[in-house]
Amino acid sequence: MHSDDPAARRDRCFPGPTPRELREQAEQTRQELGQTVEALADKADVNARAQDKAAEVKEQAAVRAGELKAKGVEAASRVKDKVPDPVKDKATQAAGQVREKAAQAGQLIQDRAPEPVRAQVAQGAQLARDNRTLLLAAAGAGVVLWLLRRKKG
Predict the structure, then answer these.
(1) DSSP 5
(2) Which of 4, 42, 131, 142 has CA atoms 20 to 30 A from the CA of 54?
(3) pLDDT tens digits for 132-150?
């Protein structure tokens, strides 16, 4: 008993995938190939990967710098709270003298130094202004240590 169904007759005559199945397989293969090519292109783009890594490292460094700055401010606050008033007054006086000497040195450099040196000095001064709290805390801690050593000796 043979069926009169044309699809059944075709299946008996032409075993294997149908044209429709072949088209679907070809489309799926194209999509997979496209994804593979895209993944290979991403891996081959060393410049983009390096830029991504650099941005990641820069972000991590900024976070770490913020953490260190916060710790420095906290330490400065603790030191400041523990330092007796006479020591604070001496530190303030010393800081004033340092500022005065720095201003004198700055004027001397500006009068006599070549332009590249002046630019570097200006950059260093800006860095010091940007980190004033940390520098003052370090100076205060140095004065405290100096006074403690002086009293012991």
Answers:
(1) -
(2) 131
(3) 887 778 888 888 788 887 7
**What length does the chain have?**
153
Residue 60's pLDDT band (cuts 50, 70, 90): confident
Which tokens in the block code for residue 124? Answer: 């260093």
Residue 75: left (phi > 0), alpha (psi -120 to 50), or beta? alpha
Residue 50: how many CA atoms within 13 Å on its side-chain side? 4
pLDDT given for residue 90 in this prediction: 81
Q: What is the dihedral of CA 8, 9, 10, 16, to 10 degrees?
A: 60
pLDDT average, residue stretch 127-133:
81
Tokens of 56: 């990641």
- Give me 5's structure tokens: 């169904």
Cα end-to-end span (Å), the chain: 119
CB 141 within 8 Å of CB 79: yes
